[in-house]
């Protein structure tokens, strides 16, 4: 009997490890955000896509809850995402674009073809702002509250379901 | 292109493969339990069919890549029309969905091979083995179909072009590294299936180990080559000349390797001496479990790593459940069915049995060390004790001394006899080797560099201690009346395999020690005409320019390298590439490989005044690292070719009378 109990040890060890792995799993998706969550939007000073003469900085984000969407003409998923962003803009959400690692010409073509839900687009050809944001690829979306603090981070494509299920509730949550 | 139905055919083939795997997982096991030969007979045809349909599915995905069908999401995200065809074909496994499909295909391939080459197995044993492998396959195919379908379409908005393959992965090393690694991971499913079948059948004798040994060796050899390739790829592709980072993904491949190494040795003891029976079963389960856990760690993104694959918690959960079911049930079965009474097979504390036991204990300690270091940050985080990262210092501080101790016993192992060895005899046969190792080890750093170095001395000492007693043993064993060659031919291939494998370990240790202690690394600013000296070589920049590749633009530098005052010189051409589709810069290193040293030149940043920051490195003996890996793998394969495994088997099925007529098995 004693030996039988001994033979159960590997199973017990595995169950403990499995428990930790499960917990690790539930923490995981926000791991990347922990560095940015509840922090100020990183400082930047970049020209806009629309007007090379006009430079903007992080003060652009103050005063109203804003969605910052990182996109690029080279990114096929961003094209898939545009209808959802236009939908959000129609529902009165303020959107700012970051045209990431792109050329001016291509960026403008993209907006002309797929529509422009953005109040203004920050032009980030070198990817410096994207780097500070810790962007892995496009599209990624950040929700910034009226004080310029990052409150929510969406990695990848915003699906049609996400608009109602996550993005709009998050926007409402931080509006007050 | 988009109207082609290839992806749908692939998807459909995958579903059929899943159904066949289900039949293969259920019928033979049920048949073996109820002793119905007809049910058991389902295993072989289903294994064949499953493999066939998986191959069709895989071929369809490859075709979508080669035909630039960007309506398939997987292709659009990971390929590009400008990509050369061979990278299009290898891009199939350069992403999550495709690599899991490859995993499943390889599992199907191993199952098919087992069903072909195990005709001498008793019918119920084969049925159970194929059944267990079928069930594993069901899990993975369900995973592919439910969470990671590679055939998903982007309709109706089909992208014009793809996002391109990550430039880091556009490389020969990546073409071959993952398939080798998966061959190893998945190959351990065979010995796992044998162990489970033995537990289910209640026949935990030495027979199952003899059948499982060749399969285990082959899987282990593939894994060894896979790990060596991964290290080689990191060395020249990541651009900073390191060859092992103790990165979670690397550890994930090292864990099953360490456990597998222990398993190979423990299988030998069980087969030859009938000892360690439960232990061998437990190791077989653990090795495959660690392979699965490696997959989980890499795929779920639980641990942050340089090998970032798409992280998706739902996928992670699916694999964790899969892992829980497979490992949990196996260990439960182990607890219930492992032999109740330990059959004491006596051996003295000075014997090959005992040395192999120590080898196993040390390897298991090493496995646990690496496992803890890998998941420790996760454990702390889970208990809210803060985020930390366990770095190379932890691993080196524990792993290096353990390796040294392991090698001390490794030197004696091949000399010792089974059951009991006379201590005086062992001493007689090893003292000279020990003395030589000590002297050469102490002198080696002085002769090589003119300065004493403890680590190098120790490294050389233990490598020689592994090799020299073995060489002496070989010398004694090849003594033959008609000459040495005839004597060498008389030795079994398994013995030669052991020699090669152990030699590989020694070669790798020399490589690790020398390159860790004597590598030279300099960051310099260089313009055209500038010269820099490093380790007796003069590097002169002769040209700076730019060129256009198929899918990238590159700045390159031409460096003329001359050794000392030698008249002969050679050119090295490092590049800094910008991959167009992703706008991603990449360093393409220039390497001058050699058996005793590598020269390594990488371009850093453009310093705008016409000069560049350059990184020059001198890497002595770095090739030995991978050479050792290849030797180990060759040893593993050579041992499989041993006549013992090709002998006509006369195994009989105790319940069914004579099994299939005896015939030559090819495994």
Automatic annotation (TrEMBL), chain A:
<dbReference type="InterPro" id="IPR036249">
    <property type="entry name" value="Thioredoxin-like_sf"/>
</dbReference>
<dbReference type="InterPro" id="IPR004799">
    <property type="entry name" value="Periplasmic_diS_OxRdtase_DsbE"/>
</dbReference>
<dbReference type="InterPro" id="IPR017937">
    <property type="entry name" value="Thioredoxin_CS"/>
</dbReference>
<dbReference type="InterPro" id="IPR013740">
    <property type="entry name" value="Redoxin"/>
</dbReference>
<dbReference type="InterPro" id="IPR013766">
    <property type="entry name" value="Thioredoxin_domain"/>
</dbReference>
<keyword id="KW-1015">Disulfide bond</keyword>
<protein>
    <submittedName>
        <fullName>DsbE family thiol:disulfide interchange protein</fullName>
    </submittedName>
</protein>
<keyword id="KW-0201">Cytochrome c-type biogenesis</keyword>
<dbReference type="InterPro" id="IPR050553">
    <property type="entry name" value="Thioredoxin_ResA/DsbE_sf"/>
</dbReference>
<dbReference type="Pfam" id="PF08534">
    <property type="entry name" value="Redoxin"/>
</dbReference>
<comment type="similarity">
    <text>Belongs to the thioredoxin family. DsbE subfamily.</text>
</comment>
<feature type="domain" description="Thioredoxin">
    <location>
        <begin position="35"/>
        <end position="172"/>
    </location>
</feature>
<keyword id="KW-0676">Redox-active center</keyword>
TrEMBL record, chain B:
<feature type="transmembrane region" description="Helical">
    <location>
        <begin position="399"/>
        <end position="418"/>
    </location>
</feature>
<keyword id="KW-1133">Transmembrane helix</keyword>
<feature type="transmembrane region" description="Helical">
    <location>
        <begin position="430"/>
        <end position="448"/>
    </location>
</feature>
<dbReference type="Pfam" id="PF16327">
    <property type="entry name" value="CcmF_C"/>
</dbReference>
<dbReference type="InterPro" id="IPR002541">
    <property type="entry name" value="Cyt_c_assembly"/>
</dbReference>
<feature type="transmembrane region" description="Helical">
    <location>
        <begin position="493"/>
        <end position="520"/>
    </location>
</feature>
<feature type="domain" description="Cytochrome c assembly protein">
    <location>
        <begin position="93"/>
        <end position="300"/>
    </location>
</feature>
<keyword id="KW-0201">Cytochrome c-type biogenesis</keyword>
<feature type="transmembrane region" description="Helical">
    <location>
        <begin position="46"/>
        <end position="67"/>
    </location>
</feature>
<feature type="transmembrane region" description="Helical">
    <location>
        <begin position="454"/>
        <end position="472"/>
    </location>
</feature>
<feature type="transmembrane region" description="Helical">
    <location>
        <begin position="214"/>
        <end position="234"/>
    </location>
</feature>
<comment type="function">
    <text>Required for the biogenesis of c-type cytochromes. Possible subunit of a heme lyase.</text>
</comment>
<keyword id="KW-0812">Transmembrane</keyword>
<dbReference type="InterPro" id="IPR003567">
    <property type="entry name" value="Cyt_c_biogenesis"/>
</dbReference>
<feature type="transmembrane region" description="Helical">
    <location>
        <begin position="254"/>
        <end position="270"/>
    </location>
</feature>
<feature type="transmembrane region" description="Helical">
    <location>
        <begin position="100"/>
        <end position="118"/>
    </location>
</feature>
<dbReference type="GO" id="GO:0016829">
    <property type="term" value="F:lyase activity"/>
</dbReference>
<feature type="domain" description="Cytochrome c-type biogenesis protein CcmF C-terminal">
    <location>
        <begin position="320"/>
        <end position="643"/>
    </location>
</feature>
<dbReference type="InterPro" id="IPR032523">
    <property type="entry name" value="CcmF_C"/>
</dbReference>
<protein>
    <submittedName>
        <fullName>Heme lyase CcmF/NrfE family subunit</fullName>
    </submittedName>
</protein>
<feature type="transmembrane region" description="Helical">
    <location>
        <begin position="12"/>
        <end position="34"/>
    </location>
</feature>
<comment type="similarity">
    <text>Belongs to the CcmF/CycK/Ccl1/NrfE/CcsA family.</text>
</comment>
